[in-house]
Write a structure and sequence with these properties.
141 residues, 18% strand, 3 helices
Length: 141
Protein backbone atom coordinates (compact mmCIF):
# COMPACT_ATOMS: atom_id res chain seq x y z
CA UNK A 1 0.00 0.00 0.00
CA UNK A 2 2.84 2.33 0.87
CA UNK A 3 4.56 1.82 -2.47
CA UNK A 4 1.29 2.25 -4.38
CA UNK A 5 0.56 5.55 -2.58
CA UNK A 6 4.07 6.82 -3.27
CA UNK A 7 3.59 6.03 -6.98
CA UNK A 8 0.24 7.86 -6.97
CA UNK A 9 1.86 10.94 -5.40
CA UNK A 10 4.71 10.88 -7.92
CA UNK A 11 2.17 10.67 -10.77
CA UNK A 12 0.22 13.60 -9.30
CA UNK A 13 3.37 15.69 -9.06
CA UNK A 14 4.15 14.91 -12.72
CA UNK A 15 0.60 15.95 -13.69
CA UNK A 16 0.97 19.22 -11.78
CA UNK A 17 4.34 19.93 -13.41
CA UNK A 18 2.76 19.32 -16.80
CA UNK A 19 -0.10 21.66 -15.84
CA UNK A 20 2.50 24.28 -14.88
CA UNK A 21 3.98 24.04 -18.38
CA UNK A 22 0.49 24.55 -19.81
CA UNK A 23 -0.11 27.49 -17.45
CA UNK A 24 2.98 29.21 -18.82
CA UNK A 25 1.13 29.62 -22.11
CA UNK A 26 -1.95 31.27 -20.51
CA UNK A 27 -2.80 34.92 -19.99
CA UNK A 28 -0.69 36.55 -17.23
CA UNK A 29 -3.49 37.01 -14.66
CA UNK A 30 -4.88 33.51 -15.06
CA UNK A 31 -1.37 32.07 -15.23
CA UNK A 32 -0.49 33.61 -11.87
CA UNK A 33 -3.55 32.09 -10.10
CA UNK A 34 -3.06 28.67 -11.68
CA UNK A 35 0.67 28.62 -11.04
CA UNK A 36 0.31 29.54 -7.36
CA UNK A 37 -2.32 26.84 -6.79
CA UNK A 38 -0.26 24.19 -8.58
CA UNK A 39 2.87 25.10 -6.60
CA UNK A 40 0.90 24.74 -3.35
CA UNK A 41 -0.32 21.32 -4.44
CA UNK A 42 3.19 20.20 -5.33
CA UNK A 43 4.54 21.38 -1.96
CA UNK A 44 1.78 19.46 -0.15
CA UNK A 45 2.44 16.31 -2.16
CA UNK A 46 6.17 16.49 -1.51
CA UNK A 47 5.45 16.78 2.23
CA UNK A 48 3.26 13.67 1.99
CA UNK A 49 6.06 11.88 0.16
CA UNK A 50 8.51 12.74 2.97
CA UNK A 51 6.03 11.35 5.52
CA UNK A 52 5.70 8.15 3.51
CA UNK A 53 9.49 7.84 3.30
CA UNK A 54 9.62 8.08 7.12
CA UNK A 55 6.98 5.36 7.39
CA UNK A 56 8.92 3.23 4.90
CA UNK A 57 12.02 3.53 7.09
CA UNK A 58 10.04 2.57 10.21
CA UNK A 59 8.60 -0.39 8.33
CA UNK A 60 12.06 -1.67 7.44
CA UNK A 61 13.18 -1.31 11.07
CA UNK A 62 10.10 -3.06 12.54
CA UNK A 63 10.81 -6.70 13.43
CA UNK A 64 7.57 -7.93 11.81
CA UNK A 65 7.61 -5.40 8.95
CA UNK A 66 4.36 -3.79 10.19
CA UNK A 67 3.57 -0.28 11.38
CA UNK A 68 0.12 0.71 12.59
CA UNK A 69 -0.75 4.37 12.18
CA UNK A 70 -3.52 4.21 14.79
CA UNK A 71 -2.11 1.96 17.52
CA UNK A 72 1.57 0.98 17.74
CA UNK A 73 0.75 -2.44 19.24
CA UNK A 74 -1.98 -3.43 16.76
CA UNK A 75 -1.01 -5.81 13.99
CA UNK A 76 -2.60 -7.07 10.81
CA UNK A 77 -4.39 -10.32 11.54
CA UNK A 78 -5.75 -12.66 8.91
CA UNK A 79 -9.42 -13.28 9.62
CA UNK A 80 -11.52 -15.34 7.23
CA UNK A 81 -9.44 -14.48 4.19
CA UNK A 82 -9.15 -10.76 4.90
CA UNK A 83 -6.85 -8.75 7.11
CA UNK A 84 -7.84 -6.49 9.95
CA UNK A 85 -5.52 -4.36 12.06
CA UNK A 86 -6.29 -4.91 15.71
CA UNK A 87 -6.35 -7.47 18.50
CA UNK A 88 -8.01 -10.75 19.34
CA UNK A 89 -9.18 -10.80 22.95
CA UNK A 90 -9.76 -14.14 24.64
CA UNK A 91 -11.68 -14.40 27.91
CA UNK A 92 -12.65 -17.21 30.26
CA UNK A 93 -15.71 -16.58 32.44
CA UNK A 94 -16.86 -18.35 35.60
CA UNK A 95 -20.41 -19.37 34.68
CA UNK A 96 -21.63 -19.38 38.27
CA UNK A 97 -20.51 -15.86 39.21
CA UNK A 98 -20.32 -14.39 35.68
CA UNK A 99 -16.84 -13.02 36.31
CA UNK A 100 -13.85 -13.03 33.98
CA UNK A 101 -11.26 -15.35 35.51
CA UNK A 102 -8.66 -15.19 32.72
CA UNK A 103 -8.00 -13.09 29.66
CA UNK A 104 -5.42 -12.76 26.95
CA UNK A 105 -4.88 -10.27 24.14
CA UNK A 106 -3.22 -11.61 20.99
CA UNK A 107 -2.49 -10.56 17.43
CA UNK A 108 -3.52 -13.98 16.13
CA UNK A 109 -6.67 -13.60 14.03
CA UNK A 110 -7.95 -17.13 14.54
CA UNK A 111 -9.34 -18.57 17.79
CA UNK A 112 -8.34 -22.08 16.74
CA UNK A 113 -5.29 -22.48 18.97
CA UNK A 114 -6.59 -20.45 21.90
CA UNK A 115 -8.96 -22.88 23.66
CA UNK A 116 -6.38 -25.05 25.39
CA UNK A 117 -4.39 -22.07 26.66
CA UNK A 118 -7.47 -20.26 27.96
CA UNK A 119 -8.78 -23.45 29.61
CA UNK A 120 -5.49 -23.90 31.46
CA UNK A 121 -5.46 -20.26 32.56
CA UNK A 122 -9.06 -20.53 33.82
CA UNK A 123 -8.25 -23.71 35.67
CA UNK A 124 -5.23 -22.11 37.33
CA UNK A 125 -7.19 -18.95 38.23
CA UNK A 126 -10.10 -20.81 39.80
CA UNK A 127 -8.12 -23.66 41.34
CA UNK A 128 -10.61 -26.14 39.88
CA UNK A 129 -9.51 -29.73 39.38
CA UNK A 130 -11.77 -30.14 36.35
CA UNK A 131 -13.50 -27.81 33.93
CA UNK A 132 -16.47 -27.85 31.62
CA UNK A 133 -15.60 -25.63 28.71
CA UNK A 134 -18.13 -24.16 26.29
CA UNK A 135 -16.83 -22.43 23.17
CA UNK A 136 -18.10 -21.39 19.75
CA UNK A 137 -17.16 -23.32 16.62
CA UNK A 138 -14.18 -21.03 15.93
CA UNK A 139 -12.29 -23.07 18.52
CA UNK A 140 -12.90 -26.39 16.75
CA UNK A 141 -9.25 -27.47 16.83
Amino acid sequence: KLQRRMEEIAASIDRYLSALDTADRQEPERKQLTTARLHENIVALKAQMRELEDIKLKLKQAPDQQVSQTDPDARSMKTRGTGIVGYNVQTAVDAKHHLIVAHEVTNIGSDRDQLHSMSRQAQAATGATSLTVVADRGYFK
